[in-house]
Amino acid sequence: MAKLFENKIFQDPEAARAWLEARLWPNGPMCGHCGTVDESRALSSRPGTHQCNACRKQFTVTVGTVFERSHIPLNKWLLATFLFCASKKGVSAHQMHRLLDITYKSAWFMMHRLREAMTPGGGAGLGGAGQIVEADETYLLKGDGKKKAEGAGGYAHKMKVLSLTERGGRVRSMRMVDGTKTEIVAALRAHVDPDSILHTDGAQMYKFTGAVAAHESVDHSKQYVRKAKSGNKVHTNTLEGYFSVFKRGMVGTYQHVGEQHLHRYLAEFDFRQNNRTKLGVGDELRAERALQGIVGKRLTYRRTNAAAHH
Length: 310
Fold this sequence. Notes:
alpha+beta; Nucleotidyltransferase, domain 5; three-stranded antiparallel beta sheet; 10 strands; elongated
């Protein structure tokens, strides 16, 4: 950790800018307003600022990214990104505000901007012909405005999450409103290749969905792994392991999360899972991939702090 803080890009804003430019502008400066590449001139009076020859507007490497209009020095943004990506169970805004010597409000907003950068931009459905996709739901913390009736059981008062993962591959998680079969089938159709084999627990809502080529389940009241006729091991252990990290982060690190922000926290944990060491992605590469995601995204404080429906 000490060596990380000694890196010049985490100490000097100019070094941080040059480092980020080298990664976001491999073919020359790109205008954040019109997208023109290598058709600008650098302004000597304002280091890092370029004048676009096409649209005549001025831009820096942060224009058109989640870093745009931030008053926090770029070296602190890079340090926050590296710390955030290297922490398996996340970093609280309080911890970040102490490490970076910025206000708690700034750290909170910074973390949400980084989560926005980690949000995937779509992509192909999970799985494919003959490939296994696990599906499972989990419940955590108390939903906004929801109270558990005295003596009542169940999860009606909790936030609901559905996760889908390829066996040994990508994971994709989403917030559910009610957790009904209709909602789950819609998610399967939207995010899973129809030629995939679906593995779930014994929940009835996954049966006869018509969303996949085949469905196999395991009854957790009897066993956690069983062998299918095809020879495949039927289980949801991949997701159980993912949920264990996710819940430790949400309950242990973040402790309370507004339901309107849950989708960004899911993007954070999905991103780290999809860029994990087992897939050959180290801490530095993981941070660089996160920074590639800052382009073309904006997140204002008003939008972050407003109630959202996802």
